[in-house]
Amino acid sequence: MKKYILAIDAGTTSSRAIIFDKKGQEVAIAQYEFEQHFPKEGWVEHDPIEIWHSQKKAIQDVLSKSNINASEINSIGITNQRETTVVWDKNTGTPIHNAIVWQDRRTSNICADLVQKGHAQMIQNKTGLVLDAYFSGTKIQWILDQDINHRKKAEAGELLFGTIDTWLIWNLSNGKYHVTDPSNASRTMLYNIHTLQWDNELLQLIDVPKNILPNVISSSEKIGSIQLEGWDEEIMLSGIAGDQQAALFGQLCFNPGEVKNTYGTGCFCVMNTGNNPVQSKNKMLTTIAWQLDGETTYALEGSVFIGGALIQWLRDGLNLISSAEEIEDLAKSVENNGGVTFISALTGLGAPYWDPNAFGAIMGITRGTKKGHLARAALEAIAMRSREIIIEMEKDAGIQYQGLKVDGGASKNNLLMQIQADLLNTIVIRPKTTETTALGVAFLAGLASGFWTSSKEIETLWEKDIEFIPNQNTESQNTISLWQERISKITTNES
Hints:
alpha+beta, 6-stranded mixed sheet, 16 helices, 495 residues, globular, 23% strand, 7-stranded mixed sheet
Protein backbone atom coordinates (compact mmCIF):
# COMPACT_ATOMS: atom_id res chain seq x y z
CA MET A 1 0.00 0.00 0.00
CA LYS A 2 1.16 3.51 -0.80
CA LYS A 3 1.76 5.19 2.54
CA TYR A 4 2.66 8.83 1.92
CA ILE A 5 1.80 12.13 0.24
CA LEU A 6 4.54 14.40 -1.13
CA ALA A 7 3.91 18.15 -0.86
CA ILE A 8 5.94 20.56 -2.99
CA ASP A 9 6.07 23.98 -1.30
CA ALA A 10 7.52 26.52 -3.74
CA GLY A 11 8.05 29.60 -1.60
CA THR A 12 9.42 33.08 -2.20
CA THR A 13 12.88 32.38 -0.81
CA SER A 14 13.19 28.59 -0.93
CA SER A 15 12.03 25.36 -2.55
CA ARG A 16 10.78 22.72 -0.12
CA ALA A 17 9.53 19.17 -0.31
CA ILE A 18 7.68 17.61 2.63
CA ILE A 19 6.41 14.04 3.08
CA PHE A 20 3.27 13.44 5.14
CA ASP A 21 1.90 10.12 6.37
CA LYS A 22 -1.68 8.87 6.60
CA LYS A 23 -2.15 10.67 9.94
CA GLY A 24 -1.13 14.00 8.40
CA GLN A 25 2.16 13.97 10.31
CA GLU A 26 5.37 15.33 8.80
CA VAL A 27 7.81 12.50 8.05
CA ALA A 28 10.67 14.35 6.35
CA ILE A 29 11.52 17.73 4.84
CA ALA A 30 14.17 19.03 2.43
CA GLN A 31 14.70 22.70 1.64
CA TYR A 32 16.95 24.76 -0.63
CA GLU A 33 17.12 28.52 -0.80
CA PHE A 34 17.52 30.30 -4.13
CA GLU A 35 18.91 33.70 -5.02
CA GLN A 36 16.89 36.91 -4.84
CA HIS A 37 17.69 39.40 -7.62
CA PHE A 38 17.15 43.17 -7.26
CA PRO A 39 18.17 44.71 -10.62
CA LYS A 40 16.61 48.10 -9.82
CA GLU A 41 14.91 49.76 -6.89
CA GLY A 42 11.46 48.22 -6.45
CA TRP A 43 12.29 45.31 -8.77
CA VAL A 44 12.45 41.72 -7.47
CA GLU A 45 13.28 38.75 -9.70
CA HIS A 46 13.99 35.01 -9.50
CA ASP A 47 15.75 32.74 -11.96
CA PRO A 48 13.04 30.22 -13.01
CA ILE A 49 15.67 27.63 -13.94
CA GLU A 50 17.21 27.89 -10.47
CA ILE A 51 13.75 27.47 -8.93
CA TRP A 52 13.17 24.32 -11.00
CA HIS A 53 16.59 22.83 -10.18
CA SER A 54 16.32 23.62 -6.45
CA GLN A 55 12.80 22.18 -6.32
CA LYS A 56 13.86 19.01 -8.14
CA LYS A 57 16.77 18.60 -5.72
CA ALA A 58 14.47 19.06 -2.73
CA ILE A 59 12.12 16.37 -4.07
CA GLN A 60 14.94 13.91 -4.66
CA ASP A 61 16.60 14.65 -1.32
CA VAL A 62 13.47 14.28 0.80
CA LEU A 63 12.94 10.79 -0.63
CA SER A 64 16.58 9.88 -0.14
CA LYS A 65 16.91 11.14 3.45
CA SER A 66 13.65 9.44 4.49
CA ASN A 67 14.49 6.12 2.79
CA ILE A 68 11.12 6.27 1.07
CA ASN A 69 10.79 5.02 -2.51
CA ALA A 70 8.70 6.69 -5.15
CA SER A 71 6.57 3.52 -5.17
CA GLU A 72 5.44 4.39 -1.61
CA ILE A 73 4.19 7.87 -2.57
CA ASN A 74 0.48 7.95 -3.29
CA SER A 75 0.38 11.37 -4.95
CA ILE A 76 1.90 14.85 -5.12
CA GLY A 77 0.45 18.28 -4.35
CA ILE A 78 1.99 21.64 -5.26
CA THR A 79 1.57 24.92 -3.38
CA ASN A 80 3.36 28.09 -4.36
CA GLN A 81 4.12 31.77 -4.01
CA ARG A 82 1.21 33.09 -5.99
CA GLU A 83 1.51 36.14 -8.26
CA THR A 84 5.12 35.56 -9.36
CA THR A 85 5.18 35.48 -13.18
CA VAL A 86 7.14 33.31 -15.63
CA VAL A 87 6.95 33.43 -19.46
CA TRP A 88 8.86 30.81 -21.41
CA ASP A 89 9.40 29.41 -24.90
CA LYS A 90 6.99 26.56 -25.56
CA ASN A 91 9.45 24.66 -27.74
CA THR A 92 12.71 25.07 -25.83
CA GLY A 93 11.42 25.48 -22.27
CA THR A 94 13.68 28.52 -21.85
CA PRO A 95 12.28 31.52 -19.94
CA ILE A 96 12.40 34.73 -21.99
CA HIS A 97 12.95 36.78 -18.82
CA ASN A 98 13.61 36.22 -15.14
CA ALA A 99 10.48 35.55 -13.08
CA ILE A 100 8.96 38.81 -11.84
CA VAL A 101 8.15 38.28 -8.15
CA TRP A 102 4.89 39.26 -6.46
CA GLN A 103 6.77 41.91 -4.44
CA ASP A 104 7.96 43.67 -7.61
CA ARG A 105 6.60 47.20 -8.22
CA ARG A 106 7.85 47.92 -11.77
CA THR A 107 4.34 47.93 -13.26
CA SER A 108 2.95 50.53 -10.86
CA ASN A 109 2.80 53.08 -13.68
CA ILE A 110 0.81 50.69 -15.87
CA CYS A 111 -1.64 50.21 -13.00
CA ALA A 112 -1.83 53.96 -12.32
CA ASP A 113 -2.67 54.53 -15.99
CA LEU A 114 -5.47 51.95 -15.82
CA VAL A 115 -6.83 53.64 -12.71
CA GLN A 116 -6.70 57.05 -14.41
CA LYS A 117 -8.63 55.67 -17.37
CA GLY A 118 -11.39 54.51 -15.02
CA HIS A 119 -10.89 50.73 -15.16
CA ALA A 120 -10.29 50.01 -11.46
CA GLN A 121 -13.89 49.26 -10.51
CA MET A 122 -14.52 47.00 -13.52
CA ILE A 123 -11.37 45.03 -12.72
CA GLN A 124 -12.37 44.68 -9.08
CA ASN A 125 -15.91 43.62 -10.02
CA LYS A 126 -14.61 40.82 -12.24
CA THR A 127 -11.54 39.68 -10.33
CA GLY A 128 -12.19 40.68 -6.72
CA LEU A 129 -8.78 42.39 -6.68
CA VAL A 130 -7.59 45.92 -6.05
CA LEU A 131 -5.87 47.18 -9.22
CA ASP A 132 -2.22 46.85 -8.21
CA ALA A 133 1.23 45.83 -9.49
CA TYR A 134 1.10 42.98 -6.94
CA PHE A 135 -0.81 40.77 -9.40
CA SER A 136 0.40 38.91 -12.50
CA GLY A 137 -1.46 40.52 -15.40
CA THR A 138 0.60 43.69 -15.80
CA LYS A 139 3.81 41.70 -15.18
CA ILE A 140 3.01 39.57 -18.26
CA GLN A 141 2.32 42.72 -20.28
CA TRP A 142 5.66 44.22 -19.23
CA ILE A 143 7.64 41.10 -20.20
CA LEU A 144 6.00 40.87 -23.64
CA ASP A 145 6.60 44.57 -24.27
CA GLN A 146 10.37 44.26 -23.80
CA ASP A 147 10.88 42.89 -27.30
CA ILE A 148 8.59 43.05 -30.33
CA ASN A 149 9.53 39.44 -31.06
CA HIS A 150 8.20 38.38 -27.65
CA ARG A 151 4.75 39.66 -28.50
CA LYS A 152 4.86 38.15 -32.00
CA LYS A 153 5.82 34.76 -30.57
CA ALA A 154 3.13 35.03 -27.89
CA GLU A 155 0.44 35.80 -30.45
CA ALA A 156 1.67 32.88 -32.56
CA GLY A 157 1.26 30.50 -29.60
CA GLU A 158 5.00 29.93 -29.16
CA LEU A 159 5.20 31.27 -25.58
CA LEU A 160 3.58 30.10 -22.34
CA PHE A 161 2.77 31.94 -19.11
CA GLY A 162 2.52 30.48 -15.67
CA THR A 163 2.74 31.21 -12.00
CA ILE A 164 5.27 29.00 -10.20
CA ASP A 165 2.86 26.05 -9.86
CA THR A 166 2.36 26.01 -13.63
CA TRP A 167 6.08 26.38 -14.36
CA LEU A 168 6.98 23.46 -12.07
CA ILE A 169 4.22 21.18 -13.36
CA TRP A 170 5.27 21.89 -16.95
CA ASN A 171 8.85 20.90 -16.10
CA LEU A 172 7.88 17.90 -13.96
CA SER A 173 5.80 16.56 -16.85
CA ASN A 174 8.35 17.39 -19.58
CA GLY A 175 5.98 19.90 -21.10
CA LYS A 176 2.94 17.63 -21.12
CA TYR A 177 0.76 19.63 -18.69
CA HIS A 178 0.22 23.40 -18.86
CA VAL A 179 -2.25 23.92 -16.03
CA THR A 180 -3.10 25.93 -12.93
CA ASP A 181 -5.96 25.97 -10.45
CA PRO A 182 -8.57 28.67 -9.66
CA SER A 183 -6.81 29.81 -6.46
CA ASN A 184 -3.77 30.84 -8.52
CA ALA A 185 -5.72 31.99 -11.59
CA SER A 186 -7.75 34.33 -9.37
CA ARG A 187 -4.52 36.22 -8.48
CA THR A 188 -3.60 37.11 -12.06
CA MET A 189 -6.08 39.99 -12.55
CA LEU A 190 -7.11 38.21 -15.76
CA TYR A 191 -9.51 35.60 -14.38
CA ASN A 192 -13.21 36.25 -13.85
CA ILE A 193 -14.05 34.74 -10.45
CA HIS A 194 -17.77 34.68 -11.28
CA THR A 195 -17.70 32.99 -14.70
CA LEU A 196 -14.61 30.94 -13.73
CA GLN A 197 -12.99 31.77 -17.07
CA TRP A 198 -10.14 33.84 -18.42
CA ASP A 199 -11.87 37.12 -19.17
CA ASN A 200 -11.61 38.40 -22.76
CA GLU A 201 -12.25 42.03 -21.79
CA LEU A 202 -9.45 41.96 -19.22
CA LEU A 203 -7.09 40.20 -21.63
CA GLN A 204 -7.71 42.88 -24.24
CA LEU A 205 -7.35 45.71 -21.72
CA ILE A 206 -4.05 44.43 -20.28
CA ASP A 207 -2.88 43.18 -23.72
CA VAL A 208 -2.24 39.52 -22.90
CA PRO A 209 -2.81 36.90 -25.65
CA LYS A 210 -5.17 34.19 -24.44
CA ASN A 211 -3.21 31.35 -26.02
CA ILE A 212 -0.29 31.73 -23.57
CA LEU A 213 -2.49 31.07 -20.54
CA PRO A 214 -2.69 27.68 -18.78
CA ASN A 215 -5.79 25.52 -18.56
CA VAL A 216 -7.57 26.03 -15.24
CA ILE A 217 -8.42 22.76 -13.50
CA SER A 218 -9.70 21.86 -10.04
CA SER A 219 -7.50 22.34 -6.97
CA SER A 220 -8.03 18.64 -6.21
CA GLU A 221 -7.91 16.56 -9.37
CA LYS A 222 -5.82 13.80 -10.95
CA ILE A 223 -3.67 15.78 -13.37
CA GLY A 224 -1.38 13.01 -14.60
CA SER A 225 1.71 11.04 -13.67
CA ILE A 226 5.32 12.16 -13.53
CA GLN A 227 8.60 10.28 -13.17
CA LEU A 228 11.88 11.92 -12.26
CA GLU A 229 15.32 10.38 -12.72
CA GLY A 230 15.99 7.62 -10.19
CA TRP A 231 12.35 6.92 -9.40
CA ASP A 232 11.20 3.31 -9.55
CA GLU A 233 7.75 4.29 -10.85
CA GLU A 234 5.51 7.22 -11.78
CA ILE A 235 3.68 9.30 -9.17
CA MET A 236 0.31 10.97 -9.64
CA LEU A 237 0.05 14.80 -9.50
CA SER A 238 -3.33 15.58 -7.95
CA GLY A 239 -3.36 18.88 -6.02
CA ILE A 240 -2.63 22.58 -6.67
CA ALA A 241 -3.27 25.62 -4.48
CA GLY A 242 -1.77 29.04 -3.84
CA ASP A 243 0.07 29.17 -0.52
CA GLN A 244 -2.41 31.18 1.55
CA GLN A 245 -5.40 29.24 0.25
CA ALA A 246 -3.57 25.99 0.97
CA ALA A 247 -2.96 27.18 4.54
CA LEU A 248 -6.69 27.91 4.91
CA PHE A 249 -7.43 24.33 3.82
CA GLY A 250 -4.67 22.94 6.03
CA GLN A 251 -6.24 24.72 9.01
CA LEU A 252 -9.55 22.98 8.18
CA CYS A 253 -11.35 26.28 7.67
CA PHE A 254 -14.03 24.53 5.61
CA ASN A 255 -17.03 26.58 6.76
CA PRO A 256 -18.07 30.19 6.04
CA GLY A 257 -16.73 32.57 8.68
CA GLU A 258 -13.74 30.45 9.66
CA VAL A 259 -10.51 32.44 9.64
CA LYS A 260 -6.78 31.73 9.65
CA ASN A 261 -3.91 34.16 10.00
CA THR A 262 -0.37 33.33 8.96
CA TYR A 263 2.30 35.24 10.89
CA GLY A 264 5.38 35.34 8.69
CA THR A 265 7.39 38.26 7.33
CA GLY A 266 3.97 39.78 6.77
CA CYS A 267 0.60 38.53 7.98
CA PHE A 268 -1.91 36.96 5.63
CA CYS A 269 -5.42 36.69 6.95
CA VAL A 270 -8.01 34.69 4.99
CA MET A 271 -11.70 34.09 5.77
CA ASN A 272 -13.82 31.38 4.14
CA THR A 273 -17.01 32.89 2.67
CA GLY A 274 -18.41 29.64 1.22
CA ASN A 275 -19.89 29.68 -2.29
CA ASN A 276 -20.42 33.44 -2.07
CA PRO A 277 -17.79 35.74 -3.67
CA VAL A 278 -18.26 38.61 -1.21
CA GLN A 279 -17.54 42.02 -2.75
CA SER A 280 -15.59 43.88 -0.11
CA LYS A 281 -16.70 47.36 0.89
CA ASN A 282 -13.66 47.68 3.14
CA LYS A 283 -10.74 47.22 0.76
CA MET A 284 -10.26 43.50 1.28
CA LEU A 285 -9.48 41.17 -1.63
CA THR A 286 -12.08 38.70 -2.85
CA THR A 287 -10.42 35.51 -4.03
CA ILE A 288 -11.05 31.85 -4.81
CA ALA A 289 -10.01 29.62 -1.92
CA TRP A 290 -10.22 26.31 -3.81
CA GLN A 291 -12.31 24.28 -6.18
CA LEU A 292 -13.18 20.78 -4.96
CA ASP A 293 -15.73 18.21 -6.17
CA GLY A 294 -17.16 20.67 -8.68
CA GLU A 295 -17.79 23.35 -6.03
CA THR A 296 -15.96 26.66 -5.80
CA THR A 297 -15.20 28.07 -2.35
CA TYR A 298 -14.45 31.78 -2.04
CA ALA A 299 -12.58 33.80 0.55
CA LEU A 300 -11.77 37.30 1.71
CA GLU A 301 -8.10 38.14 2.18
CA GLY A 302 -6.21 40.96 3.83
CA SER A 303 -2.46 41.40 4.00
CA VAL A 304 -0.25 43.08 6.58
CA PHE A 305 3.02 44.02 4.88
CA ILE A 306 5.04 44.14 8.09
CA GLY A 307 4.55 41.31 10.58
CA GLY A 308 7.59 39.36 11.70
CA ALA A 309 9.64 41.83 9.64
CA LEU A 310 9.07 44.35 12.45
CA ILE A 311 10.87 42.09 14.89
CA GLN A 312 13.66 41.58 12.32
CA TRP A 313 14.00 45.38 12.08
CA LEU A 314 14.27 45.70 15.87
CA ARG A 315 17.03 43.11 15.69
CA ASP A 316 18.95 44.22 12.59
CA GLY A 317 18.07 47.92 12.34
CA LEU A 318 17.98 49.03 15.97
CA ASN A 319 19.96 46.19 17.61
CA LEU A 320 17.32 46.18 20.33
CA ILE A 321 17.54 42.38 20.46
CA SER A 322 20.16 39.93 19.21
CA SER A 323 17.69 37.23 18.11
CA ALA A 324 14.01 37.22 17.19
CA GLU A 325 13.26 34.83 20.04
CA GLU A 326 14.38 37.41 22.62
CA ILE A 327 11.43 39.68 21.85
CA GLU A 328 9.01 37.64 23.96
CA ASP A 329 11.02 37.77 27.21
CA LEU A 330 11.84 41.45 26.67
CA ALA A 331 8.15 42.28 26.19
CA LYS A 332 7.29 40.26 29.30
CA SER A 333 9.71 42.37 31.37
CA VAL A 334 7.06 45.12 31.58
CA GLU A 335 3.43 44.91 32.67
CA ASN A 336 2.08 46.89 29.71
CA ASN A 337 3.16 49.11 26.79
CA GLY A 338 3.73 52.15 29.05
CA GLY A 339 1.58 54.28 26.75
CA VAL A 340 3.78 53.52 23.70
CA THR A 341 2.22 52.80 20.29
CA PHE A 342 4.35 51.37 17.49
CA ILE A 343 2.82 52.15 14.08
CA SER A 344 4.36 49.47 11.87
CA ALA A 345 4.00 51.20 8.47
CA LEU A 346 7.63 50.63 7.47
CA THR A 347 6.64 49.94 3.83
CA GLY A 348 3.34 51.77 3.73
CA LEU A 349 0.07 50.17 4.80
CA GLY A 350 -1.84 47.34 3.13
CA ALA A 351 -5.49 46.45 3.84
CA PRO A 352 -7.70 48.18 4.75
CA TYR A 353 -5.74 51.40 4.12
CA TRP A 354 -3.81 50.62 0.91
CA ASP A 355 -1.66 53.66 1.60
CA PRO A 356 1.84 53.24 0.08
CA ASN A 357 2.94 56.61 1.46
CA ALA A 358 2.09 55.98 5.11
CA PHE A 359 5.12 56.01 7.39
CA GLY A 360 6.11 54.18 10.56
CA ALA A 361 6.19 55.88 13.93
CA ILE A 362 6.74 55.25 17.62
CA MET A 363 4.46 57.47 19.72
CA GLY A 364 4.00 58.06 23.42
CA ILE A 365 7.68 57.88 24.46
CA THR A 366 8.54 59.41 27.84
CA ARG A 367 11.53 59.43 30.22
CA GLY A 368 10.05 56.29 31.70
CA THR A 369 10.02 54.33 28.43
CA LYS A 370 12.09 51.15 28.54
CA LYS A 371 13.20 48.66 25.88
CA GLY A 372 10.50 46.31 27.13
CA HIS A 373 7.82 48.87 26.32
CA LEU A 374 9.08 49.13 22.73
CA ALA A 375 9.16 45.34 22.43
CA ARG A 376 5.62 44.98 23.77
CA ALA A 377 4.32 47.79 21.54
CA ALA A 378 5.90 46.03 18.53
CA LEU A 379 4.03 42.79 19.29
CA GLU A 380 0.84 44.80 19.79
CA ALA A 381 1.38 46.45 16.39
CA ILE A 382 1.42 43.06 14.64
CA ALA A 383 -1.72 42.02 16.50
CA MET A 384 -3.49 45.36 15.93
CA ARG A 385 -2.91 45.32 12.17
CA SER A 386 -4.29 41.78 12.05
CA ARG A 387 -7.24 42.87 14.21
CA GLU A 388 -8.10 45.69 11.79
CA ILE A 389 -8.29 43.27 8.89
CA ILE A 390 -10.31 40.61 10.69
CA ILE A 391 -12.90 43.16 11.86
CA GLU A 392 -13.34 44.52 8.32
CA MET A 393 -13.69 40.98 6.97
CA GLU A 394 -16.39 40.25 9.51
CA LYS A 395 -18.29 43.37 8.36
CA ASP A 396 -17.96 42.38 4.69
CA ALA A 397 -19.03 38.79 5.16
CA GLY A 398 -21.81 39.51 7.66
CA ILE A 399 -20.60 36.48 9.58
CA GLN A 400 -19.40 36.47 13.16
CA TYR A 401 -16.26 34.36 13.26
CA GLN A 402 -15.72 31.82 16.00
CA GLY A 403 -12.06 31.84 16.96
CA LEU A 404 -8.89 32.50 14.96
CA LYS A 405 -6.58 29.71 13.76
CA VAL A 406 -2.94 30.75 13.51
CA ASP A 407 0.25 29.48 11.90
CA GLY A 408 3.60 30.76 10.63
CA GLY A 409 6.89 31.35 12.44
CA ALA A 410 5.74 34.21 14.67
CA SER A 411 2.73 32.20 15.89
CA LYS A 412 5.20 30.32 18.11
CA ASN A 413 5.46 33.50 20.21
CA ASN A 414 3.02 32.76 23.03
CA LEU A 415 2.84 36.34 24.25
CA LEU A 416 1.98 37.61 20.75
CA MET A 417 -0.78 35.03 20.48
CA GLN A 418 -2.17 36.01 23.90
CA ILE A 419 -2.10 39.69 22.92
CA GLN A 420 -3.95 38.77 19.71
CA ALA A 421 -6.62 36.92 21.70
CA ASP A 422 -7.02 39.85 24.10
CA LEU A 423 -7.24 42.52 21.38
CA LEU A 424 -9.75 40.52 19.32
CA ASN A 425 -11.58 39.23 22.39
CA THR A 426 -11.67 35.79 20.83
CA ILE A 427 -10.01 32.41 21.23
CA VAL A 428 -6.77 31.99 19.24
CA ILE A 429 -5.98 28.40 18.28
CA ARG A 430 -2.53 27.11 17.27
CA PRO A 431 -2.23 23.62 15.75
CA LYS A 432 0.48 21.07 16.50
CA THR A 433 1.44 20.92 12.84
CA THR A 434 2.63 24.38 11.83
CA GLU A 435 3.40 23.37 8.21
CA THR A 436 -0.20 24.13 7.33
CA THR A 437 0.52 25.37 3.78
CA ALA A 438 2.17 22.12 2.73
CA LEU A 439 -0.34 20.07 4.74
CA GLY A 440 -3.25 21.84 3.01
CA VAL A 441 -2.11 20.92 -0.49
CA ALA A 442 -1.25 17.40 0.72
CA PHE A 443 -4.89 17.09 1.84
CA LEU A 444 -6.13 18.35 -1.56
CA ALA A 445 -3.88 15.89 -3.40
CA GLY A 446 -4.83 12.98 -1.14
CA LEU A 447 -8.56 13.63 -1.50
CA ALA A 448 -8.28 13.47 -5.30
CA SER A 449 -6.23 10.27 -5.27
CA GLY A 450 -8.34 8.50 -2.64
CA PHE A 451 -5.56 8.51 -0.03
CA TRP A 452 -8.11 10.17 2.25
CA THR A 453 -11.76 9.45 1.68
CA SER A 454 -13.39 12.72 2.73
CA SER A 455 -12.99 16.04 4.51
CA LYS A 456 -14.57 14.34 7.54
CA GLU A 457 -11.62 11.95 7.71
CA ILE A 458 -9.17 14.85 7.43
CA GLU A 459 -10.89 16.67 10.28
CA THR A 460 -9.98 13.81 12.60
CA LEU A 461 -6.27 14.34 11.86
CA TRP A 462 -5.98 17.99 12.86
CA GLU A 463 -4.55 18.44 16.36
CA LYS A 464 -4.62 21.51 18.55
CA ASP A 465 -1.43 22.59 20.29
CA ILE A 466 -2.80 25.34 22.53
CA GLU A 467 -5.76 27.69 22.89
CA PHE A 468 -5.20 31.27 23.99
CA ILE A 469 -8.23 32.49 25.95
CA PRO A 470 -8.89 36.25 25.89
CA ASN A 471 -8.47 38.18 29.10
CA GLN A 472 -10.99 40.89 29.77
CA ASN A 473 -8.90 43.88 30.78
CA THR A 474 -8.75 47.64 30.40
CA GLU A 475 -5.20 47.48 29.02
CA SER A 476 -6.43 46.00 25.74
CA GLN A 477 -9.04 48.72 25.33
CA ASN A 478 -6.43 51.40 26.07
CA THR A 479 -4.13 49.88 23.44
CA ILE A 480 -6.94 49.90 20.86
CA SER A 481 -7.95 53.49 21.65
CA LEU A 482 -4.39 54.81 21.44
CA TRP A 483 -3.79 52.91 18.19
CA GLN A 484 -6.92 54.30 16.53
CA GLU A 485 -6.08 57.83 17.58
CA ARG A 486 -2.42 57.65 16.54
CA ILE A 487 -2.56 55.73 13.25
CA SER A 488 -4.74 58.46 11.78
CA LYS A 489 -1.77 60.83 12.17
CA ILE A 490 0.45 58.89 9.74
CA THR A 491 -1.96 57.91 6.97
CA THR A 492 -2.10 59.98 3.79
CA ASN A 493 -5.31 58.44 2.43
CA GLU A 494 -8.82 58.33 3.78
CA SER A 495 -9.38 54.77 4.98
